[in-house]
Amino acid sequence: MQNRFFAMLARMKLIRRWGLMFSTRDENLSEHSLDTAFFMHALLSLHNRRFLTPGEEPLDLGTGVLLAIYHDAAEILTGDLPTPVKYFSAEISEAYKAVEAASCQSLLDLLPADLREDYAPYLLPAGAYARYLPYLKAADRFSALVKCMEETRQGNFEFRRAAAQTREAISAMALPEADCFLRDFIPAFEKTLDELQTQEDF
Predict the structure, then answer these.
(1) Average pLDDT over the chain, rounded to whole?
(2) CA separation for the pair 103, 2 (Å, rounded)
(3) pLDDT tens digits along 21-59
(4) What pTM was estimated for this model as a whole?
(5) Contact 17, 30 (CB under 8 A)
(6) What is the biggest distance separating any 2 CA atoms in the chain, rounded to whole angstroms?
């Protein structure tokens, strides 16, 4: 019997993000998910190496990366709902969460029964993954911030306010790992390729 799960996942690259914004280059859901996974890995590494408290269990990097890869999988079926709509009211937010959960369950149901247990924790994360969620939110925001920075570097001021708001939202999270990443790693995204390939600071 042919299975459709991975063919559906492949459609992530067809889902365009930032639907209400003029972009110099379109960003798709597949790109966003990979970027979010990169940032999630970095944030969890920073946590485990620099900010782990005595007696605290380290966060599992693989679990975090998989949560990031699948965090927006529901949008394969729902599309990318613009943020002003998604958070217009508490009622709309709750209704959309229910739609997302139903969409993820639909994707999960496409898998053979003996594989579902391996995917369910990432498509439908439960309370056991609560420790990872602040880092996932931060990683998601870093992906958005980098997109905003790329657009403003191209002279597209459509993203200027979104960049400032996203940066403020990251800072407001009061996550030391996110503050560290914002300070030490994000400035490099302003550099040209030549600048990135040299050891000199510009």
Answers:
(1) 92
(2) 20
(3) 999 999 999 999 999 999 999 999 999 999 999 999 999
(4) 0.91
(5) no
(6) 57
- Contact (CB, 8 A) for 196 and 188: yes
Closest CA to 138 of 114, 172, 103, 109: 172
Task: Give Cα separations from 15 to 33, 55, 130, 132, 194 (angstroms).
Answer: 11, 42, 27, 25, 32
Cα–Cα distance for residue pair 147/188, rounded to 1 Å: 14
- pLDDT at site 100: 87
CATH architecture of the domain formed by 5-191: Orthogonal Bundle (1.10)
Contact 134, 175 (CB under 8 A): yes
d(CA 180, CA 183): 5
Q: Take residue 86 and report the two structure tokens written for it.
A: 């998604």
CB hemisphere CA count around 57 (13 angstroms): 6
The domain spans of the chain are: 5-191
Q: What is the pLDDT of residues 131-173, one digit of tens each?
A: 999 999 999 999 999 999 999 999 999 999 999 999 999 999 9
Phi, psi of 16 (to 5 degrees): -85, 135
Contact 125, 100 (CB under 8 A): no
Match 């799960």 to its residue by tokens. 5
**Is the pLDDT reported for residue 85 higher than 70?**
no
Torsion of CA 14, 18, 22, 26, to 10 degrees: -30
